UniProtKB/TrEMBL annotation:
Source organism superkingdom: Bacteria
Residue ranges of domain SsuA/THI5-like in the record: 39-244
Keywords annotated in UniProt: Signal
Pfam family, any one: NMT1
Signal peptide: 1-24
Species lineage: Bacteria, Bacillati, Bacillota, Bacilli, Bacillales
Descriptive protein name: NitT/TauT family transport system substrate-binding protein
Length: 308
């Protein structure tokens, strides 16, 4: 009887090991790219904690310091998926590059005002100089925040400053009244006493997304499903652990300065979810009004056509 039980135990272990190996062997690797920012954190955590390995997926993750470098890698075929924004998806589709939105992420843009008693909320930016990058999700976020306040999108004076460090310095030197900033630049300004006037996320505007080519969605559906399964595990980890447990990773990935250790706050991360067609339609209307596209794009054309 003991020999039989031993045999059965060994057999079960062997079968289990073979099943895991078969699952790993059946899944092809995925290549994915993103700019080093807070919204890539679930993917980095999934890699650090072995969640992709648990899913039998080999993910080749590449982090970039600029959108231009990421886009160059994507266009050259080095990347099968990426974190970008809905503006970029429109531009790709307009150029007949078939890339589809697969999920929203936690990328946020915050409206930061200088130390001025007359600046207290969005309504106070009328006639004020606001530093942005034009024809980007940053300008889109500003326009939507301004519209939400019941103002004309021409109410602020837009000052085009593409480089984020320069945008922050111009705010600090009172060369502009307000700047639209992502992390870590927003937190750096707030730590120095500048004012939070608005946030795209607080108003329900999510423009940052994950995306994969249609070729990958058709040919590697199981791999993409495994990607998001690992992603969701990482979101659970992030939302159920204090930021101190993964603070070092945030500093490595996002680039906060050392003096901010112990004072940063992580957002509540969202699990995999597609944006609504109305959200996408709003972005399509905006890029059309800006003259950035000439194709008659529809929301369904930009969305992945199956659930994960």
């Amino acid at each position: 009887m003991k020999k039989l039980l031993c045999f059965l135990t060994i057999s079960i272990l062997l079968i289990s090991g073979c099943t895991k190996q078969a699952n790993a062997d059946n899944l092809m690797p995925l290549s994915f790219g993103a700019i080093s920012s807070i919204d890539v954190l679930p993917i980095v955590i999934a890699e650090e904690k072995g969640y992709f390995e648990e899913e039998g997926l080999a993910l080749n993750l590449e982090l970039f310091t600029s959108a231009n470098d990421r886009d160059a890698a994507f266009i050259s075929g080095e990347l099968e998926g990426m974190i970008c924004d809905m503006i970029a998806i429109n531009l790709y589709q307009n150029s007949d590059v078939d890339v589809k939105i697969t999920s929203v992420t936690n990328g946020d843009f915050q409206l930061i005002g200088r130390k001025d008693e007359a600046l207290t909320d969005l309504n106070d930016i009328v006639g004020r100089k606001v530093a942005i990058s034009d024809n980007t999700s940053i300008e889109y976020a500003l326009d939507k925040m301004v519209e939400h306040a019941g103002l004309s999108i021409d109410a602020p004076e837009k000052v085009i400053v593409p480089a984020l460090p320069v945008r922050l310095e111009m705010l600090r030197n009172d060369q502009v009244d307000v700047a639209v900033l992502p992390e870590p630049f927003a937190s750096l300004a707030l730590q120095d006493g500048y004012k939070l006037l608005g946030s795209a996320h607080e108003l329900g505007y999510y423009t940052s997304v994950t995306a994969f080519t249609q070729e990958v969605l058709e040919g590697k559906q199981k791999e993409v499903e495994s990607f998001f399964s690992a992603y969701n595990k990482a979101v659970d980890y992030l939302n159920n652990h204090p930021v101190q447990d993964y603070e070092e990773i945030i500093f490595d990935v996002v680039g906060y300065p050392e003096e901010m250790k112990g004072s940063i706050h992580a957002p509540i991360f969202e699990k995999h979810a597609l944006p609504t067609e109305s959200d996408i339609a709003n972005v399509i209307d905006w890029v059309k009004e800006k003259g950035l596209v000439d194709h008659d794009l529809q929301p369904a054309e930009l969305l992945a056509n199956f659930d994960f």
